[in-house]
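A reminder before we start the practical. When you read a complex entry, don't treat the lines as separate problems. The point of joint prediction is that each chain is placed relative to the others, so the output describes one connected object in space. Small molecules and nucleic acid strands, if listed, are placed in the same frame. In the example below there are two entries. Take a minute to note the order of the lines before looking further.
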Amino acid sequence: MTKTHTGWYTFHGVQLEIVECGQGRPILLLHGEDGIDLQAPFLNLLASFGQMFIPSHPGFGHSPEVDYIDTVDDLSYLYLDFLAAQNLQDVIIIGLSLGGWIAAEMAVKSTERIAKLILVAPVGIKVGDRETRDIPDIFALSANEVARLKYHDPTFAVVDYSKLSDDQLTALARNREATVLYAWEPYFHNPKLQRRLRRIDVPTLLLWGANDQFVTPRYYGAAYRDAIPGARLEMIDRAGHLPHIEQPVTVIEKIRMFIEERKT
Amino acid sequence: MQAWHFSENAYHLLPDAKEYDSIRVTLPNRYYDPKIGADLYHRYIDEWVIAEDLGLEIMVNEHHQTATNLNPAGPIIMGILARETKKARLLILGNPIANRREPVRVAEEMAMVDVYSRGRLEVGFVRGVPYEMSAGNHRPVHMMDRFWEAHDLILKAWTSHDGPFNWEGKYFHHRQVNIWPRPYQQPHPPVWITSVTPSSARQVAEKGYVVASFLTGFDGTKAVIDTYRGRRAELGLPEPALDRFAYAALVYTGETDEEGYAGARKLMWYVESNKVPPQFTNPPGYHPTAATVNMMRGASGAGAGIFKLFQNPSLESFMGHGLVFAGNPDSVYKQIVKMYKHVGGFGHILLMGQAGFLEHDETVKGMKLFAKEVYPRLKELGPVVVP
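Here is the predicted structure of the whole assembly.
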């Protein structure tokens, strides 16, 4: 495991728990609904690419909630402020699911400090009409059903609570509560975002599990790709909504190639 | 003590529970026959009117997308009862104000019923059970903030009489609030708030409202009432009268114990039929984080022992824990007195005395026996020395 450092950043009254690892060009990794799993092989592999900043969004992990931050829009300003406060330049942003939504909301506001975007199965847009359920309502489904929708191999979803500490269980519970805070209504999207995505002017790679049934690549992923100028959509075989968990090596390889590509 | 007849207006003619996953939120309404439903509404309204004739007060509530309760708009039933009755107090317990999108509309509805009932309305505010979240698309986090903001707005709407005021809060916006009619009772109708845990009783105590506990049993009820009293004392506020406390239980009075138990077994339908999967009983953020962690650890319910009873309900265990009062009039009286003494007294008993399979005649018989044989003795109960 690469050496990681967990620190606290305080700015504008916000306390953020941020894991840092690696050296080199700055990479901001924005986690999804499930928070950060420091044991995930994906993180370890990623740390060879640069200096990673992995914050827990307010309400997730150990980061306290902030009373004036309760939308993904708020989170996008928070992380733009973070990049500015650290004076980071040419940042690569990797956003996973909910984190992909945050990254997209940042990039439509300003790409001044952003070099490239990698969005892994991002949520955040509304594709179909008002009666089309673009994204299954996980709050009205059983845990087994959600696992089936989110994973190619649902055994990845199995968690033995009895092996977790109170601290770990609390983080799990907080992650779910914070997901409700940011994504309950409108459900996992900002009705304005799809039209704003055209403003993104940095190279953008969309990675999608070929068997993602939470937000499907051919429908939802294609709409995302079409909305961002020049964006590329690449599929990961034998993966669902969390390809970085199910196929970390493939995902890392695609990210490496994308980072090394010259700007066109 | 005041006794209130309370019915959930259930629609009980359902297929075998094996055929559906949940009696709430997702049960298709093709199982509901509107012609039978119409008869049931009229029957339940008749029973409330009979309650008044028997000297009981009247209580209604509200739930959504569920066969257990066909009052998705409590104020409508209350509006009918305000006209159909003449003297009973009318309690709506209550308005789910964390979930209603327009608190000003709630203030208007309540003021309207208060006026044409000539001041007989008692207004309950409730948070709403977890199953209401998906049923109404209500975000389960930060609910109590929303609840109290709605409360503040409603109270201000009721008590402002000099033209519009402005409200630009965190959850609600309304720039010209000036309700017509204003309430009949001055400064406003009595307010009730439900509370099943001590933590939520603290704020109710600060306001001095009636706190009502539903099926919380001996220790749960005592914890709520003790917290209320303790909070008042802490703030140097006057000691609460017994009419600040209400307890809701399933109650059936028969001529004999056997008849009482038989009626109560039918009331248990509410508990036994409440088939609801975990995604609706524990939406993230509804229960405190620590309670969710306990549930992950395998503890049941919202962390309190009483909730275990609901997983495998039986009349015996419910009676043993003071959630059901049943038997002949003397038995029912004694059971209520036992609860009364245990918690230090309460001024209201909310009688869940009707459930679908309890036929009209049986329902009325239970109400009558309670009203004639039990209620007069309860009215004579005096203060209890608080332990």
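Discuss with your neighbour: The CA atoms of residues 80 and 106 of chain A lie 7 Å apart. What might explain this?
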